[in-house]
Amino acid sequence: MITITKRVFPPRSATRFIRKTEAPSFFRATLPTCDDAPGKVIDFEGTQVPFEKGDTVLTAVLRAGMRPWRGCLCADGDCPYCLITLEGISYVRACRTPAVEGMKVESHPSDGYPALPPSSQAPTRERGVGFEMIHCDIVVIGLGRSGREAAAEAEERGRRVVTLDARAGREAVGVYPGPEVVARTRGGMVRMFCEEVVVATGSVEVQPVCPGNQLAGILTKRAAERLVAAGVELGRVVSVGVPPDGVEHEPARGGLVRFVGEGTVQRVATVDDETGAEHAYPCDTAVVGLGSGPRDTLARMAQGLPGVRSVGSVAGHLDRPPVPEAGVVCPCSEVTVDDLRSVWNRGFHELELIKRSTLAGTGACQGAVCMPHVRSFVAAGGQELPPSFTARPVVAQITMGEAAAGWYHHADRRTALHDEHLALGARMERSGGWLRPWTYGDADREYWAVRSGVSICDVSTLGKILVSGPDAESCLERIYPATIAPLRPGRAKYVLVLDERGYVFDDGLVCRDDANRFLLTATSAGAGYFEMWLRDWADAWGMDVRILDRTASWGAISVTGPRSGELLSRLGDAGRLPSFMGHTEMEVAGVACRVMRLSFTGEISYELHHQASQSRDLWCTLMESGADLGVWPHGIEVLEELRLEKGHILVGVDSLPDSTPRRLGHGWAVRMDKGDFVGRLAVARTSRMDLDKLLVGLEMEADPPRKGAILRVKGGYAGFVTSSTWSRVLGRSVMLAWLYVRDGEYADDVLIEGRPARRVAVPFYDPEGLRVRA
Amino acid sequence: MSAPDRFERIEATRIVAVPGALDEIEAPFGGHLLRLAPDDLLVLQPQARVDVADRYAIVESEAGFSAAWFDRSELPRLQALSAWEFPRRGPAFAQGHLGGIPVKALFYESGVLVLVPAVLAHHLEERLGVGDRPE
Amino acid sequence: MVLRLACPHCGPRPVEEWMYGEVPDPPDYLTEADERDVDRGFMMSNTEGAKQERWFHAGGCRRWQTIERDTTL
Ligand code: FES
Ligand SMILES: [Zn+2]
Predict the structure, then answer these.
(1) Do residue A432 and residue A574 come from a single domain?
(2) Is residue A114 part of a domain?
(3) CA A334 to centroid of ligand 1, rounded, Å
(4) Chain B CB within 8 Å of residue A93 CB
(5) Are residues A364 and A450 in the same domain?
(6) Minimal CB count within 10 Å: which of A108, A299, A668, C53?
(7) CA–CA distance, A615 with A623 (Å, rounded to integer)
(8) A404 occurs within a structural domain
(9) CATH of the domain at C39
C-alpha cells in the first residue's frame, strides 16, 4: 500500500449530489476557470501562448499556429499524442487540460520518458491531493446521448445520480466490485459507492496506420470538427474517408497510402481502388475518418460485475480497420507493421503473444490506438481472435499522489501519558504500533535509577484482556501450553502462546481473579492479534466466555527498582502490596489500581494498571513523591538493556517465525501432561526431532556487536545475534543469539565480527533472582 | 459554521454479557446505549448502575474513548471521509472507519456524536481538521 | 478498495476495516501432517467461486464473522 502523510480536506461544496444532468459539476467550486480577460497566457516551453475562454492547452497552442505534437490527434483523450508535462507532472493530456493563466507546460519528450520530478515536488501536507467518498444510487460514466438519457431516466425514478464526464474534468479511472467507481477530478480523487453503474463512454475513432502517420498536422474527423469549432485555423485541409462536418476541405479519393512531409504533413497520397493509380493531395492538415470502435476499457474492466451495464456505442462493435501494410501501429511502444511481421514469422501468432513480444498495446493509451489494427493483422493471418482483453485499473495515467489519495499513513497510538513524556524531554519512537518514549535524554541516569533507586516506565501499551465465564478456565487451558487450573486467585503465571504448528508467536501473563475470571496480558505489538486469536478459538470451541480488550482503556505504569516498594508504601497501604508474581486491587495515590508484582527489569517491579483517564495524575504523583528517592523515568532503550541482562526474550525480536519453545530454551513453559492445547500435536512431533538451533546467551569483552551480526565457528556460519547491549552493571557485552548445531554439537566459543564470544547461562544478571524476590 | 470541539476523553461504562442479558438493559436516565457487538454494550454514563442478568458479565468503567460533537452541517464533510453510508435518520448508532480511523457514532437529527479510541484521537482530529494541535 | 463485506452486526463495510482469517486451507492431496503444517502458509486450495471465510471486523464490532465470498469478483 502506498502511504503518504497528508491532510484530507475536501472542498465543502463537493458533497452536493447533482440533480441536473445538464450542469453536472460536484467539483465546480474547484474547477480552474478560464479567464476571458484579454492578455492571459500560458507558458508553453518558454513561449507565451494567449488563450481564450473555454480553451484547452491543445486548442490554445494549435490556435497560436504551433504544431508540437506528432501523430494523428483525436482531441478526445484517446490517442497518446498530445501528452504534456504540466507543472512537473507528466502524462497529462493537453486536450483534457483547461488553459489557466501562467500555467507552465512542456511537451512530452520524444523518447517517451519524462524526467522524474525533483524531490522538492514530493507531495506534502499542503499539496496533498483532495479526496472524498460519495454514496449514491447510480453512477453514469460518459455524458454523450446515451449517458444523458440514462441519467435523466434514473433521475425521474428519484434515484441519486452522479455523472462523470471526462471532458468536464471528471474522469472515471476504475470500476470495482460493489460496485464502486473511482474518478479523478480537478478537485482530487473521488470514490463513489453505488448500486448501479452505467458505462456510456461512447466510441473511439480508428487511427490511420501507414507510412508518415507520425507526422504532425494529422487529425481525426471528430478532432477536426472540434478544433474548427474552437477557432483553430487548419489551413488547407484534405480529408480521407468519411469527411468532417463543418470543416472546409478537399476530399481525397481512394484509400489512404501514406502521408508525406518534413515533420509536418505536406501531402496525402491515396490510391484509386480500381485503376491502382496514386494521387497526391497537397495540404496543411490531413483529416481522416476511418470509423470507430467502442471505447470499452471501463466496460471490459467491469465485465461480469453485478450492477454494471454498458449503453450506447460502447456496447457496439468495432469498424475493423483495413489490414495494416506499413508504418507505425503502436506509437506508444514504437511498434511498426514490420515488427508485427517479424514476430509473426518467428511463430508468435496469438494476440496475447504478439502483445507480449512487441509490447504493442501496453503503452500510455493501453491499446486504444493500436489494438484494432493488431487485431486486423492477426485476423488476416487466419488466426481466430480472442475477445478483447480484460482491462485492469487504472485506465488513465494517474500520479502517485492521486493513487495515494485517501490512504493514510499508519496511525500510531499514543498513550495517555504522551504529553508527560514530551514535557520530560522524551524522544518518541514508533514501536509495535505505538509511539513510545525511547529515551528521556540521559540513558545512564535512566538505567541507574532502575538498578539502584526507583524508576517508572509507561507500559500502557501492554495487551490487557479480561476473560470471564463458566468456560474461562477450560478455554485458557486450551489456548496456552501451560497449566492454568492450579493458578490461584491473586496469582499470575508466565505463558507462551503457540500456533497450531507449535511455534511461539506471543507471550504474556495469566492473572486469575476468581474461579471464572482472568486477566491476560500480551506483548504491545501482539495485543490486537492475540485478541483475534482468542476470540477465534473461543468461537471454534463454542466456549461460554465473555472477552473484553482493555489495552487502550487501561493505562499501566511500571514502578521498578530496589526502592520501588518504599515509594509505593508512601502512596498506598504497604501491607497490601502483593508478593512476587501476585496481583491485587488497591488504591495508589487515590487511584484504583490493579497492582501486579513481577519483574522484567530484574529489580523488584510493580505494575499499576488503572483507568487511562487517571494516568497523568498517577504518573505525576509518583514523580513528585519519589523526588527525594531520585525517581526518574526510563524509556524503552534502557528497558531493552535491562531485560536483556535478565535474559528475557522479546517475542518477535529474539524469536523467529519457526521458534518452538524448545528452540527458545523455554521447554519448561510447556506441559505435555495436561489436556489438549493449540500446538500440542506439533510440539509432540517436533520434540522427537533433533534440535538444530537454540537461542543462547553470549558475552564478550568491549563493545557489543550489531544486532544481526553473524556467529562463526571454525570459520563457518553458526547463527546470528538477535539482541545485544553493553551491560553497565556487568562491565561487558551481553547478547542473545541463535546458535546452530555444528558437527553435532553447540559450540561454547564463537567468533562475532572477528571477536571471541563465550556462551554463558542466562540470566546474565542476578542469576538466582534474589533481587526480584527481595 | 462553528468549528467542532476537540475530542475529549469521556467516562462511560462497558458491559460484556450474553446478548439476551444486554437486550433487557434500558438506558439509564441521561445515558445512551451503544451496542458495539451482540455481547458488548457501551453505556454513555460513568459508573452506570444497571442490573445485568448474567452472573459472568464483565462490567467495567470505560475511559478508553474520546468524543466530539459535530453539528448537522458538518455531516456532509464527514460522510465524504467514510466508505460506508451514514444512517439516513437518527437516532441511530453506527460504527466503522472514518478517515481511516475506527469510530463509533451516534446520529441524531441535529448532528452526530463521534467516539474514537482515545489512543487514536489525535489522528482523527488531524484527519477531520479539528483543532490545530501543533505537531 | 474493492471488496465490501457485510457484517451481520454493523452492515456492509469496506475490506480496509477487516482482517482476513487465515483459515488453513491446504490442498487435499497433502495428507502428511508435516507437509500440511509447513505448506499451509503457501499452499492454498485456491477455490474459484463462493467460499466461506472467517473475517475479523477490526474497525467495527471486533468480532469474527463467517462470510461467504465470491473469489472471482
Ligand atoms: S498505441 Fe498506445 S498502447 Fe499501442
Ligand atoms: Zn462488525
Answers:
(1) yes
(2) yes
(3) 8
(4) no
(5) no
(6) A668
(7) 12
(8) no
(9) 3.30.2270.10
Q: What's the rounded Cα separation, in Å, for the pair A106 and A43?
A: 8
Q: Which atom of ligand 1 is nearest to the CA of A80?
A: 2
Residue whose cell numbers read 490487557:
A464
A79: CATH: 3.10.20.740
Structural domain count of chain C: 1
Report whether pLDDT(A579) > 50: yes
**C6 pLDDT more than 80:** yes
Do A232 and A352 belong together in one domain?
Answer: no
| Ligand 1 centre distance from Cα of residue A180 (Å) | 27
Q: Given the cut 0.90, state whether the ipTM is greater than it.
A: yes
pLDDT tens digits along A654-666: 999 999 999 999 9
90-119 in chain B: CB under 8 A from chain A: 99-101, 117-119
Instruction: Inform me whether the pLDDT recorded for A702 exceeds 80.
Output: yes
Confidence at residue A501, expressed as pLDDT on a 0 to 100 scale: 84
Closest alpha carbon within chain A to C14: A178
Its sign, for the CA torsion A147, A150, A155, A161, is: negative
The answer on A219 and A270 residing in a single domain is yes
What pLDDT is recorded for position A643? Answer: 97
Taking the Cβ of residue A666 and every Cβ of chain B, the question of whether any pair is shorter than 8 Å is answered with no
Q: How far apart are CA A725 and CA A732, in angstroms?
A: 9
Using CB distances shorter than 6 Å, the residues near ligand 1 are A 80, 330-333, 360-367, 369-370
The distance of B34 to chain A (nearest Cα, Å) reads 15
A12 at B interface, C-beta within 8 A: yes
Query: Which residue spans within chain B are E strands per DSSP?
Result: 8-9, 12-16, 33-37, 40-43, 58-62, 65-71, 92-98, 101-107, 111-117
Give the mean model confidence (pLDDT) for residues B70-99. Answer: 93
**pLDDT tens-digit series, residues A82-93:** 999 988 888 899
Enclosing domain of residue A768: 649-773
Q: Which residues of B touch C14 (CB under 8 A)?
A: 83-84, 97
| Residue range C47-62: mean pLDDT, rounded | 91
Task: Give the domain CATH number at A264.
Answer: 3.50.50.60
How many structural domains are present in chain A? Answer: 5
Identify which of A93, A206, A209, A332 to mutate to test ligand 1's pocket (most ligand atoms within 8 A of the CB): A332
